[in-house]
Amino acid sequence: MIPRKFARYLPILDWGSRYDRAALGNDLLAAVIVTIMLIPQSLAYALLAGLPPEAGLYASIVPIMLYAVFGTSRALAVGPVAVVSLMTAAAIGNIAAQGTIGYGAAALTLALMSGLMLLGMGVFRLGFLANFLSHPVISGFITASGILIAASQLKYILGVPASGHTLIEMLTSLVSNLGAVNFWTLAIGLSATAFLFWVRKGLKPLLRAKGLSPAMADALTKAGPVAAVIVTTATVWLLGLDARGVNIVGAVPQSLPPLTMPSLSPELLKQLLIPALLISIIGFVESISVAQTLAARRRQRIDPDQELIGLGAANLGAAFTGGFPVTGGFSRSVVNFDAGAETPAAGAYTAVGLAIAALMLTPLIHYLPNATLAATIIVAVLGLVDLSILKTAWTYSRSDFAAVAVTMLVTLLVGVEAGVSSGVLLSILLHLHRTSRPHVAEVGLVPGTQHFRNIHRHEVQTDPTVLTMRVDESLYFANARFLEDSVTNRVTGDTALRHVILMCSAVNEIDLSAVESLEAINNRLSEMGVKLHLSEVKGPVMDRLKRGHLLDELTGQVFLSQYDAYQAVLEQKDAVAEQPASAS
Amino acid sequence: MIPRKFARYLPILDWGSRYDRAALGNDLLAAVIVTIMLIPQSLAYALLAGLPPEAGLYASIVPIMLYAVFGTSRALAVGPVAVVSLMTAAAIGNIAAQGTIGYGAAALTLALMSGLMLLGMGVFRLGFLANFLSHPVISGFITASGILIAASQLKYILGVPASGHTLIEMLTSLVSNLGAVNFWTLAIGLSATAFLFWVRKGLKPLLRAKGLSPAMADALTKAGPVAAVIVTTATVWLLGLDARGVNIVGAVPQSLPPLTMPSLSPELLKQLLIPALLISIIGFVESISVAQTLAARRRQRIDPDQELIGLGAANLGAAFTGGFPVTGGFSRSVVNFDAGAETPAAGAYTAVGLAIAALMLTPLIHYLPNATLAATIIVAVLGLVDLSILKTAWTYSRSDFAAVAVTMLVTLLVGVEAGVSSGVLLSILLHLHRTSRPHVAEVGLVPGTQHFRNIHRHEVQTDPTVLTMRVDESLYFANARFLEDSVTNRVTGDTALRHVILMCSAVNEIDLSAVESLEAINNRLSEMGVKLHLSEVKGPVMDRLKRGHLLDELTGQVFLSQYDAYQAVLEQKDAVAEQPASAS
After folding, report:
1. By the CB < 8 Å criterion, does B463 face chain A?
2. What pTM does this model have?
3. Intra-chain end-to-end CA distance of chain B, in Å
4. Domain spans of chain A?
5. Cβ partners under 8 Å of residue B362, min gap 6
6. What is the chain A residue with the closest CA to B392?
7. Do B280 and B121 touch, CB atoms closer than 8 A?
8. Residues B272-312: pLDDT tens digits?
9. Which of B454, B474, B541, B549 to mutate to test the interface with A (most CBs of A within 10 A)?
10. Assigned CATH for B440-583
11. What ipTM was estimated for this complex?
């Protein structure tokens, strides 16, 4: 028997023990469909990453099998995806020239580092790091990446040499080489692109109108890229277009994934540190949202920390078998799910299918034109481009809009790593800025009730000797000084004041900085002859306060409810007012 | 007449128009006391910053006058302070060698950059940036700086050459040079240190016991450093100790502050960018807390943004008159306040006193031993060292402790800039981590009331078809995914569920990421046949939600109170339960 603690790390033990013939049948069918779809996609993403086409196949075989063992999603299909491939090209492009041995080796190292980071985050339960990527930043980044990817593929459609990692570099490089456009390449590229767009938009309704079942129509639609590959490859071969300047995939080794050893040069490791971290986090975020979405449809559970381990294992697999960084892809996972995959075994069968392809079918793609692969990429990534997020964010709030806009602009104009990093930094800064000026309302008693409301919005009862301020935010270092300033400035000019009550009903947490600010407020008020009271302090906050000195030094009291506080303070005042009378 | 918008930037117009003879008398008396105290302190901090002694005097003259015009604090005394002088030495030490022209020029540039940054933060109201320095980070940094400063002065007490910017570098350098200790220097250094400690701890009680008034005892105590300067200078001169290896201040020019032009070399500006930013923020935080504390004692107001302008102007003054970065100092401000300074004019009179000193008294300090200045620094900064913050933070919370400990260790072992930066980064990360896993409680109805409480802590009433989750935190990007995971995972296994109510009474704010997570939750629940409802949504949060699509897509409703929500949902259930009965 395997102890439970191992079982936690091996979800396969759970579903594997209940695997039956029905599940096998469904998984096999899904695997066939996904395999057919993955062949052109894998070749295309290798091209996008700047690697030889077989790397795309290799990156889809062992990783998918390792994810089947360690991952928790039943339907996730792991392999090369567009955004991660783009980030791979950007990271390695600065270090080695495309086509060199160093380039391929760096891709392996990047997969190794990303795998180790994901594993580490999983084992130490650091998945929360992915939370720092806000939705606006991710949306902005993915949209900008889609545009960048499409722009990077134009050179294959036009058949001209071009280079550059930013949108402006790419476009200027393209424009300056426009004279070298190859007619045949352009003809193939444009027709493949037009065909694939039509397949995506027009084919399915047509097939449904012809009376095909939705599932059948869907499957035929997904086969579009395969059809494009077959037709254009045959055309190039039959017309001998490669001799007329059409770039083709060329000789691809017939081989199972090779055993490879990533380079461990310290210099390389250092250069790839930040890119590997960003690739890991972006890949994880993309993968987990696909996994959660699909799992919810069947009321299945996803364990984010175990997902990190599954993706980490997949990337280690890629590193040692000639691949490059991989993650759970959206389109392939949806196909897998829609095709009826029931368990991760479907992924394993897909891997077998791709292994057979790598071993047997590679001679068939010798004449496959790069323009066709570029067309499949362009059509796929334009689905990622969603400029409506700019409008949504603008309507919602200026700071969310700023996060989207900065992420998009920096990604397009500077690069993918700078884009993600600046988006993350900006969202953190904006969040801190927002919470650094919490809403602080002066409140008074609603007559006839025990409720207290904002004095500027309601007809309420107040007393010149009592000031009640309600803080609508947890208190921590970023807003501690603001509270100090607000209270001190409000009290300074008001010589009638004798009591300040801080109403803490919306304070969920309080850190040491805030406690020290409250102590400072208490001291300053004390020097002005004003007492500080607290009301409606939540349990966890009270527990914290008991650990500091504030409660010993507080000139006033802590009241359970604001009404109690107000009553008690008014009674004190009356008692003081009566005293001189009785003494005289 | 001067328009009001100018008056905002010139607080002098406010207090200047009401200046009278009584205020003049008080301000003049305070100025005399502060001038006497500032002479040795200014020389000492110049030594600490690695600059010639006159730079300390110059940095105390024009800056203090400019602050008098632009600052809002009545009692703040601006000039060189220990921590900022240490940071200056650390920043310039990497760029130029002490004693070179380049070193002095870099100090001017640093003051210029710091002045411009402070002015910029003031004009653009960016004072909130200072909030990122939490109390634990500041306390840890100031304590560690105090230790570093004391260690850096030991070489003057021992009379040996030594170097280094980290504690370990300094101590190893000292130890390796111990053979070269100069007896006379050590004798002067130790006796000055012992004398100053005794003045600080023992003299005041003694004077009070002899019947002196507290004010007089205080004034005499503050004059301790001046006495030490006079006695040791006379000793060196009379015994000719400078010929026996005692390092002395030497020739100091007799001059008013010179007009200087900071270097604007782009390379230098780039190197000093981060140090200048850190010096500005640390200086501002130190200054504003002194100003706030003193202002509260007299119910005066401090405007943080205007303080930035005042400090910015002071630093620009330092940059163009042979000084180095300055800020509001704690000890000198307290002396100024205690001596009865009523308006910033006291600062201006102090400046006049110091100008006279710079012009006339510098020949008198020719034989002043560096060891005496080092002794005044050591005694002053050991007052900053407060290791109890470690214990306070440990008792309060692990994350506050981590912030203190990391700031202290990194400051001591790596350097001041790395120390502050790592402290700030760590506190931000810990804050995000804390809020990334908000407290989410499952609640039920307390029987006989309309209150809902945690089902694990109270005897409450629940229904198997209804799940109510209360989120005790504002929802934003760092915890949006956690909420998704919590709800999805809780609902997945529970097939009886038909309604999920999110109780939002503690949600003060909600950003676009959180709204999109709520949409995702709504969709996933919808696919499981479960409705999502919201209850007790605050006004500002509701306003936000109305800007997005969530309310259109929500499968359930938004209820004013949790009790309404619970009742409505149970009625729906009864209605559904009755339907099949009536249909059959």
Report:
1. no
2. 0.78
3. 89
4. 21-131+180-382, 440-583
5. B54, B252, B253, B254
6. A548
7. yes
8. 999 999 999 999 988 988 888 788 777 777 888 899 999 99
9. B474
10. 3.30.750.24
11. 0.77
